[in-house]
């Protein structure tokens, strides 16, 4: 059994004016007299803590209860919502600062870390929970495991602080679940492997039902657009349904549809080999869908949610769909498949048709859909195409709070013409404009399978990986927490 090595993360606000002194958080102020040979404030002055947000300094042996103490800079206490950046900077500063301190202690071998709530226990818990996660299931050398606790000493309302910390911990856990699915190799997270993990994580949660459908079921449902993608792979396709009934009985559920291509080779329209390994994360939409419902259930949100995840591989096997083939979707529309690497929209088309048979109150579909979205927004935000300004306003504000931002993209009929003017069928799976406006033509294609007036398509291709742009995230960034914030807002309404 490993020896317990305790550490503490404490926060300090940067001076509001140049040359001023830093401002200690209540927890830090309460603790500072407990250090050996003087106050913590004096130590900070002598050591010269860099007050740039996210910077930290570690002290050893200055307190018997906590042999390792990381003091982190939270930026200015006056920080708030930044209109140009579209983010709550105070919450982001807390996430980044706490993550910096926790990571330093974790790397130093500390395995029980108490964290100053820093005025926002939820954000502090998110930063701590997200930064300590890593996918190392297949490595001989594992990342050191850390137990995270909220440092409530001196808090006015310990119960409220702990409750908010618990919520933030669950939000981090849900996003880490999505990241696990996206990071694991494609021979582990096959369509079958995805469903098995879904059952493992969700089957014991209250008010959750898991249904796993097979190819025969999809054939009966006439999901030939979905099936056309999986034909080139020997891995059996699956269609995963998750039902969470946390709201009032009889209330229409909100539908979330997630693209679940567990590996995308491009099919006959084969991708270039460089970075093809990252296509194990092409099921990011399904991962976020599953992670969001998992989190909503753990938080016991009073809302009904129904998740739909078509799962398959896109491979160039001998039965693979060929460029120029025509397939028929569940709603009877025919699709000319001119590029088999534009497969995500094909599986989402049938999933959207099926989702609408449940008469949902609204629909979100999520997908790592287009390289064009990566070109347009990079890793800064997910692109949102919506037929409903009401839904857009809710998710826009959710992104402000979560830090996983979203940006509205055009859903003009201009793009519809580019996918409906085709030689052999009702629709073409790539726009006549080629790569120009590719994210927009993909959304226009999906719109042809949606009759609901409250629908959003979220293209998360740009944020499927995090390359150190977000300090508190490791690999496999996802929009999970934004979707949970969105569902929380629906529940409050």
Automatic annotation (TrEMBL):
Catalytic activity, per the record? L-cysteinylglycine + H2O = L-cysteine + glycine; Release of an N-terminal amino acid, Xaa-|-Yaa-, in which Xaa is preferably Leu, but may be other amino acids including Pro although not Arg or Lys, and Yaa may be Pro. Amino acid amides and methyl esters are also readily hydrolyzed, but rates on arylamides are exceedingly low; an S-substituted L-cysteinylglycine + H2O = an S-substituted L-cysteine + glycine; S-benzyl-L-cysteinylglycine + H2O = S-benzyl-L-cysteine + glycine
> Could you confirm whether the keyword Chloroplast appears in this record?
no
Specify the Cytosol aminopeptidase domain's residue ranges. 339-346
A single GO CC term for this protein reads: cytoplasm
Is Translocase among this UniProt entry's keywords?
no
SUPFAM superfamilies found in the cross-reference section: Macro domain-like, Zn-dependent exopeptidases
Q: What class of enzyme is it?
A: hydrolase
| The EC number(s) this enzyme carries | 3.4.11.1, 3.4.11.5, 3.4.13.23
Please give one Gene Ontology molecular function term for this protein. manganese ion binding
Gene Ontology biological process terms, A to Z: proteolysis
* Keywords on record: Aminopeptidase, Hydrolase, Protease
Function summary: Cytosolic metallopeptidase that catalyzes the removal of unsubstituted N-terminal hydrophobic amino acids from various peptides. The presence of Zn(2+) ions is essential for the peptidase activity, and the association with other cofactors can modulate the substrate spectificity of the enzyme. For instance, in the presence of Mn(2+), it displays a specific Cys-Gly hydrolyzing activity of Cys-Gly-S-conjugates. Involved in the metabolism of glutathione and in the degradation of glutathione S-conjugates, which may play a role in the control of the cell redox status.
Please state which protein family the record places this protein in: Belongs to the peptidase M17 family.
- Return the protein name: Cytosol aminopeptidase
Q: From what organism does this protein derive?
A: Capitella teleta
């Amino acid at each position: 059994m490993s020896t317990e090595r305790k550490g503490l993360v404490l926060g300090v606000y940067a001076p509001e004016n140049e040359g001023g002194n830093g401002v200690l958080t209540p927890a830090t102020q309460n603790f500072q007299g407990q250090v050996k040979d003087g106050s913590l404030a004096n130590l900070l002055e002598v050591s010269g803590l860099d007050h740039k947000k996210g910077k930290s300094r570690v002290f050893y042996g200055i307190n018997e209860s906590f042999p390792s103490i990381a003091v982190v800079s939270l930026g200015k206490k006056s920080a708030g919502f930044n209109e140009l950046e579209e983010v709550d900077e105070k919450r982001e500063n807390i996430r980044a600062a706490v993550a910096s301190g926790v990571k330093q202690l974790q790397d130093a071998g500390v395995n029980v870390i108490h964290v100053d709530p820093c005025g926002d226990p939820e954000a502090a818990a998110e930063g701590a929970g997200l930064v300590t996660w890593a996918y190392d299931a297949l490595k001989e050398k594992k990342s050191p495991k850390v137990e995270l606790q909220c440092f409530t000493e001196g808090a006015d309302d310990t119960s409220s602080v702990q409750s908010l910390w618990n919520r933030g911990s669950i939000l981090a856990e849900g996003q880490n679940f999505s990241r696990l699915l996206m990071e694991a190799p494609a021979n582990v997270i096959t369509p079958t492997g995805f469903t098995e993990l879904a059952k493992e994580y969700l089957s014991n949660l209250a008010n959750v039902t898991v249904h796993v459908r097979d190819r025969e079921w999809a054939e009966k449902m006439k999901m030939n657009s979905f099936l056309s993608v999986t034909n080139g792979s020997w891995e059996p396709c699956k269609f995963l349904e998750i039902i969470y009934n946390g709201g009032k009985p009889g209330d229409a559920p909100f539908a979330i549809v997630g693209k679940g291509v567990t590996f995308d080779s491009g099919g006959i329209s084969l991708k270039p080999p460089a970075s093809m390994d990252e296509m194990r994360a092409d099921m990011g939409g399904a991962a976020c869908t599953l992670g969001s419902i998992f989190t909503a259930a753990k938080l016991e949100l009073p809302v009904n949610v129904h998740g739909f995840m078509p799962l398959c591989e896109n491979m160039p096997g001998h039965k693979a769909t060929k460029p120029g083939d025509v397939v028929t979707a569940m709603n009877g529309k025919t699709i000319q498949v001119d590029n088999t690497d534009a497969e995500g929209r094909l599986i989402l088309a049938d999933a959207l048709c099926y989702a609408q048979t449940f008469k949902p109150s609204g629909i979100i579909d999520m997908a790592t859909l287009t390289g064009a979205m990566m070109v347009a927004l990079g890793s800064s935000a997910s692109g949102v195409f919506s037929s409903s300004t009401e839904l857009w306003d809710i998710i826009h504000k959710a992104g402000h709070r979560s830090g996983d931002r979203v940006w509205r993209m055009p859903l003009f009929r201009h793009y519809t013409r580019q996918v409906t003017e085709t030689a052999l069928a009702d629709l073409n799976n790539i726009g006549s404009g080629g790569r120009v406006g590719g994210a927009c033509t993909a959304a226009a294609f999906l719109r042809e399978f949606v009759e609901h007036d409250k629908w959003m398509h979220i293209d998360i291709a740009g944020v499927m990986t995090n390359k150190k742009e977000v300090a508190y995230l490791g690999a496999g960034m996802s929009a999970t927490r934004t979707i949970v914030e969105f569902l929380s807002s629906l529940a409050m309404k």
